[in-house]
From TrEMBL, chains A, B:
EC number: 1.1.99.24
Keyword Transmembrane helix set for record: no
Protein name stated in the entry: hydroxyacid-oxoacid transhydrogenase
Keyword annotations of the record: Oxidoreductase, Transit peptide
Pfam families tied to this protein: ADH_Fe_C, Fe-ADH
Residue intervals of the Alcohol dehydrogenase iron-type/glycerol dehydrogenase GldA domain: 19-190
Reaction(s) catalysed (UniProt annotation): 4-hydroxybutanoate + 2-oxoglutarate = (R)-2-hydroxyglutarate + succinate semialdehyde; (S)-3-hydroxybutanoate + 2-oxoglutarate = (R)-2-hydroxyglutarate + acetoacetate
Domain of life: Bacteria
Family to which this protein belongs: Belongs to the iron-containing alcohol dehydrogenase family. Hydroxyacid-oxoacid transhydrogenase subfamily.
Provenance organism: Streptosporangium amethystogenes subsp. fukuiense
Alphabetized GO MF terms: hydroxyacid-oxoacid transhydrogenase activity
Length: 428, 428
C-alpha cells in the first residue's frame, strides 16, 4: 500500500510519563511534587471540574506537604489561542512556578502544557504552534515538571507530547508538539471520574477506543524511510510497544465500556475504563492516530447547532470523542486492505462474541457500529447536523491534517475522504 | 496465602526510561544527549565490552554531535564496593560531567548508576547501600541524565532503579535502590549483542525469563496493606502494567530463545530477545522478583570452581542468569498454590505446544526444565558444584534477601528454601 522504502526505518522510540494509578492516588500529589523539590505550584483546571471541588481539595492537600498552591480555573473546554494566552498571562503574573498540576480533561492538561512552555521558554504561543499555521519552534530550555490528573477517562493527554488548540482568526484546529511537553507524572484516580455523565463516558470512551484502533492500524514504523535522529517525531508509526498497549486497551474496553455507560457508579467498570484510557494514551502517544482523528477536526470545528447530552448547555459542540467516532467505521473499512490481519484482530478483541462476516472488511466496522448504537452515539455525521452539502468542506478541512493522514496505513486522497464522509452521514 | 490486609493497597506506580530501540539506534546517542544539553560526558564500560570496540565507536560518534566524551573501561563484571569506588574516584577526578552513558551488561549500567549518584550527591557509597548493610540514605539532589546501552540481552538494568554490588568485607551481595537511579533513556540496539556467545545468551536469557515469571507471580499490589506515599517502593507487586510487559516478554521468548542460543547470527531471534529483555525489565522494574532471585545471591556468591562456557576464563563464577534459573523450577512448584492461574498461563505462553500434566503444579516447572536442558544449562545447583552439604549455607544466604522474599506470593521460611534448594540439586 505504501511504496517500499529504499532504506527502511529500523528504529522506534517510546516515551511515557511515570504513572500512579488507583483509588486515592490523587491525595498523594503533594508527596510526588516534593520529590521534584517543588514549593510553589500552579493548579490548572476548568470551571466544570472546579465545581466538583476536586481541584480545591487537591490544592489543600498540597499545603499539607509544605507546598504553596494557587488554582487557575479559567481553562476553556476546547482551548483556543485566546484561552491559552489568558492562562499564560495569569501564570506569568503569579510566577515563577516550580511545577504545574493539571486537573481535568484534555483541555486542562493541554492548557497546562502551553503554560509550562511559555513560562519557561522565550517567545509567544504562535512561535511554537505547528508549521505552517505557526512557527514550529522547538523549546530551547527545559520545562518544569507537569503532573497531569485526568478526570475524564478519554483524552490520553496525560501521556502525550501534544497541546491541541483552535486558532480563532484562522478557524483552524492545530497543535504544539514536542517531547518536552509531556507530563512527567500521570496520576490516574478512577474516583475522580465517578461523577461523569453517561454521555461524556460514551464520547470519551470512543476517543479511548479510537486512539487504540488508530495506533494499532497506523503505518508500521518500518514502512517509512529511515529518519535521521533530528527528524524523529513522537508519533513514529505502529511498533511493538504501542501495539501492546493498544491491544490491552481494546480488551479492557471490551469488558467495561457498555457497563460504564449504563451504570456510572460501577467502580470496577470505571476502573477498567480509566486503565484503558491510560494504556491507549501510552500507545497512541507514540504510534500516532490517523483518518478518524483527521476528520474529527472539521466535524468539531464546523458544528452549527448540535448540543450533546451530558455536556454544559450553551455553545453548540460535537465533543472530541464523538467527532472522532462518527467516521471511524467507514475509515476502518477503507484502511482494511492495507493491514487486514490487524483489523480482524482488533474486531476480535473488541467483541469476542461477534461472528466474522463473509466480507471481512465489514468485521471491524460492524463491531464498532453496534457498540456506538448501544452506547447512544448519534447515527453518523448526519446525527450531529451535517448533510451531503457539507461533505466537501469537511473533506477539505480533514485534508489539512496531513500530519495525521500521513500515519494512515495507505495514502489518503481528498476523494477518499469524501467517500468516507458521505458513507458516514448515517451509519445504521 | 497472605493474610487479608485490613486496609488493602489500591494504588500502584509505574516508571520507565524512554526507549530507543532498533538496529542502528546506538549511532544516535549524541543527538539524544544533546537534547539534555550535555557537552561533557563519561562513557562507562567493562574491559570485555571495550574490546568489542563499541564503546570507542560510540564515544567517537558523540564528538560528531559536539560532545566531548571520555571512556572509563574499568567496570568489574559483578561489581563490588571496591570496583564501584574506583569508578567513582575516576569520575570525580575528571568531572564535572553533564551526563553518563553506560555501555555493557548490568555491571556497567549498575556502575554508572553508582557513579551518577556519588558525583551528584554528598556522602559515600555505604551511606546509600540498602539498610541494614548500609545507611539506606535517599539521594537529596537530582542526578544527571544516564543513558543505558545494554549489550547483553538480559539484565534489564537499563529499566530499573537498582545497583547491585558485593560488599567484599561482609561477603554479602546487596544493592542501592532509588527512583532517581533509573536511566532516563535506554538505547537498545540488537546489533550490539550479535557477538554474544551461546552460553551467555542462554544464561542471560534465563535472567530475562525469570524477571518476567517472577514479576508475573509476584504478590499482587492489592494484597499489601495500604502504604503511605513515602513508604511506596519501586517494586510494588504484580499489577496490570507489569503483567502486560511480563506476558509479552514470555511470549517473545517462546518464539526466539532456543533459536537465539542455537544460532547467534539469527538477527530476527536476536531482535526478539532484545525486545523481550527490555519488556521484562520494564515489568520487573515495577513489580519485583522473588525466590529464584533471592536464591541466586548465595548461589553466585559461594561458587567454588565452576567455569561457565562463553565467559572470560579466570575466576570461577556462576553467571547471574544461571544462578537465578537453577532453582526456578522448584521455586515455581512451591509458589503454584498461591496463584495457580498465573502459573498455568505463564507455562502456556512459554510453550504453547506442551501438554498439561495431571498435576498442574508440575506444568510450569516441566516447561522450564525442558527449556533449560535444551539450551545447555547445568543440571541444577549440583551442576555448578553444590552438594546437599551446601544447602544450609545457601538457604541461610537466601534468607538474608528479605526484600525479595517479601515479594513472593506466599510466606517463605528457611525450611521452605531448604526444600527448594535440595530438590534443585539435580533437575533432570
Amino acid at each position: 500500500m505504501f511504496s517500499t522504502p529504499s532504506n527502511p526505518e529500523s528504529v522506534f522510540t517510546y516515551g511515557a510519563p511515570a504513572l500512579k494509578f488507583g483509588s486515592g492516588a490523587s491525595a498523594e500529589i503533594g508527596f510526588d511534587l516534593g520529590q521534584y523539590g517543588a514549593r510553589h505550584v500552579l493548579v490548572i483546571t476548568d470551571p466544570g471540574v472546579a465545581a466538583t471541588g476536586a481541584p480545591r481539595r487537591i490544592a489543600e492537600q498540597l499545603s499539607g506537604f509544605g507546598i504553596q498552591a494557587s488554582v487557575y480555573e479559567g481553562v476553556r473546554v476546547e482551548p483556543t489561542d485566546e484561552s491559552l494566552l489568558a492562562a499564560v498571562e495569569h501564570a506569568r503574573a503569579g510566577g515563577p512556578w516550580d511545577a504545574f498540576v493539571a486537573i481535568g480533561g484534555g483541555s486542562s492538561i493541554d492548557t497546562a502544557k502551553a503554560v509550562n512552555l511559555l513560562t519557561t521558554n522565550p517567545g509567544e504561543l504562535m512561535d511554537y504552534v505547528n508549521a505552517p499555521v505557526g512557527g514550529g519552534l522547538a523549546p530551547s530550555r527545559p520545562l518544569k515538571p507537569l503532573v497531569a490528573v485526568p478526570t475524564t477517562t478519554g483524552t490520553g493527554s496525560e501521556s502525550t507530547t501534544i497541546c491541541v488548540l483552535d486558532v480563532l482568526d484562522l478557524k483552524v484546529k492545530t497543535g504544539i508538539s514536542h517531547a518536552r511537553l509531556r507530563p512527567v507524572l500521570a496520576v490516574v484516580d478512577p474516583d475522580l471520574a465517578m461523577s461523569q455523565p453517561a454521555g461524556v463516558t460514551a464520547a470519551a470512551g470512543m476517543d479511548i477506543l479510537c486512539h487504540a484502533l488508530e495506533s494499532y492500524t497506523a503505518r508500521p514504523y518500518t514502512s517509512y524511510e529511515r529518519r535521521r535522529p533530528e527528524e524523529r517525531v513522537p508519533y513514529c508509526g505502529s511498533n511493538p510497544v504501542a501495539d501492546m498497549w493498544s491491544e490491552r486497551a481494546i480488551a479492557l474496553l471490551a469488558r467495561s465500556f457498555r457497563t460504564a455507560v449504563r451504570d456510572g457508579d460501577d467502580a470496577e467498570a470505571r476502573g477498567r475504563m480509566a486503565l484503558a484510557a491510560t494504556f491507549a494514551g501510552l500507545g497512541f502517544g507514540n504510534a500516532g492516530v490517523h483518518i478518524p482523528h483527521a476528520n474529527a477536526y472539521p466535524i468539531a470545528g464546523r458544528v452549527r447547532d448540535f448540543h450533546p447530552e451530558g455536556y454544559p448547555a450553551g455553545e453548540p459542540m460535537v465533543p472530541h470523542g464523538m467527532a472522532v467516532a462518527l467516521t471511524a467505521p467507514e475509515a476502518f473499512r477503507f484502511t482494511f486492505e492495507a493491514l487486514p490481519e490487524r483489523h480482524l484482530r482488533a474486531a476480535e478483541l473488541l467483541d469476542p462474541s461477534a461472528a466474522r462476516p463473509d466480507d471481512l472488511s465489514e468485521y471491524l466496522p460492524g463491531v464498532l457500529t453496534r457498540l456506538m448504537r448501544d452506547i447512544g452515539l448519534p447515527d453518523g455525521i448526519g446525527g450531529v447536523g451535517y448533510t451531503e452539502a457539507d461533505v466537501p468542506a469537511l473533506a477539505e478541512g480533514a485534508m489539512r491534517q496531513q500530519r495525521l493522514l500521513g500515519t494512515a496505513p495507505r495514502p489518503v486522497t481528498e476523494d477518499d475522504l469524501t467517500k468516507i464522509l458521505t458513507r458516514s452521514i448515517a451509519l445504521w
